[in-house]
Amino acid sequence: MKQSKMVQVLCKNQKMRFVIAITLLTLLGFISTSLISYFVAHQAVSKQITQSALPLTSDNIYSEIQRDLMSPVFIASLMAQDTFVRDWAISGGKEPQPLIRYLSEIQKKYKTVTAFFVLDETRQYYHPNGVIQTIQPGPVINEWYFRVKKMPTEYEINIDHDTANPERLSVFVNYKVFDYNHQFIGATGVGLALDKVQQLIENYQRKFNRVVYFIDKNGELTLRGSQFSANAKTLQQPEFKNVLDKDTTTTAASFQYQSGSHTVYVNTRFIPEFNWYVVIEQTDDAQTKKLFNSLMINVVVSIVISIIVLVASYYTLAAYQRRLEYMATTDRLSGAFNRHSFDILFEQHLRLAERKNKPFSGILLDIDYFKAINDKYGHVVGDEVIKQLVGILRQQLRESDMLCRWGGEEFLILLPECQIAAAVDIAEQTRKMIQGFEFSQEIKLTASFGVAEFNIDEHPSCQEKWISDMDKALYQAKANGRNTVVEVC
């Protein structure tokens, strides 16, 4: 029936809107929680990198540097303090071979790329291979000696071309040599192959999974590994320049900056032995990727759960709605429509009849002497009789007809597109079926019928008069001795 279907569609739409609203709220809650967790975790990761991971890495690398690069400084210091070297230099260096053998042994024992000594008196450059040259002011390759002679500190570390092999860059530890009266008499030291030092940096980067490089106090790059990017913006950051501009060297400093969509975390530590800064960089790529993947998993799980909630809510509400609709529109005992349903469906049949200009009829029936059955057999048997009667009535009805329980033992049947004569025939056939049927406890029943046609031309939309006509006809059937059909003329 169209009216019933329209009500169902309306209820279904309301139910769908309610379920969608609940699902969206659930999804919004899940996603909001996931986003909040993501940003909180991101801040925690940023704090952990800045305050814990990078400073700890800086300390570890500083310890590694002291172990790996301080060894050449220690060797050069021993050479500068060695009494043999000092006595040989004080004596004027007349016999070069003993010093050359000494430098050769130093080079072999400590596996340095070179070992050298420059006697200030003659400015001759001694090497394990012999006297290489005399240091003269002017050439760039000799500037290191005159710088060392004037520097206030006892030693320096720098990257320079090897005097014995000008094509090769090496990391040199240049150490001043003094006589016993603390007068400058020369410079000595060792050199390490640059690729060996860079290999140390590569080991640091591999071990700590960070970018590691060294700069001097002027901000100039001194040593770097393969992970160093020439496009890195760290050295141009104001925070970095503040570290270099301070009058006193800073033991450690940390800052961070944005590079595109990534955050770069930087930690610097001054190494007084080298007069350099070690710079350690880390981006949040790996951590952010893990957090983002976790966020995506949470979002997907949220969507799946929301879909499950949507489906479960829809079918649960649908089941409850069908149950409520059934309870609201159906007589619980008989399964026929109740009077509330009749009022709704009558309006639909009336509009249909007006549109098609065809009358419809109704049958009002009442079980004869039903109270006597309840008194004799009890209400349980009486209820069973009602159910069996409804089954008989439905056998006589079309799918479009409507059966309604009107009272305790009264039923109203609405017959669409049915004139009075056909309605009387249906009532008569029904009366005979009831009379010939054997109910529970071998009970025999009869029923009285009142039939009336609803003619829209005579009294359109007059439901009360139509029902009143059927009621009068039923009353007349009772007065005529019951078990009869009376029509309204």
Automatic annotation (TrEMBL):
Annotated organism of origin: Catenovulum adriaticum
Designated name of the protein: diguanylate cyclase
EC main group: transferase
InterPro entries: dCache_1, Diguanylate_Cyclase, GGDEF_dom, Nucleotide_cyclase, Rev_trsase/Diguanyl_cyclase, Sensor-like_sf
Main location class: membrane
Keyword tags: Cell membrane, Membrane, Transmembrane, Transmembrane helix
Xref: Pfam families: dCache_1, GGDEF
Its EC number(s): 2.7.7.65
CDD domains reported in the protein's UniProt record: GGDEF
Localisation: Cell membrane
Domain GGDEF: 358-489
Residue spans crossing the bilayer: 295-317
Keyword Nuclease: no
Membrane-topology annotation of the record: Multi-pass membrane protein
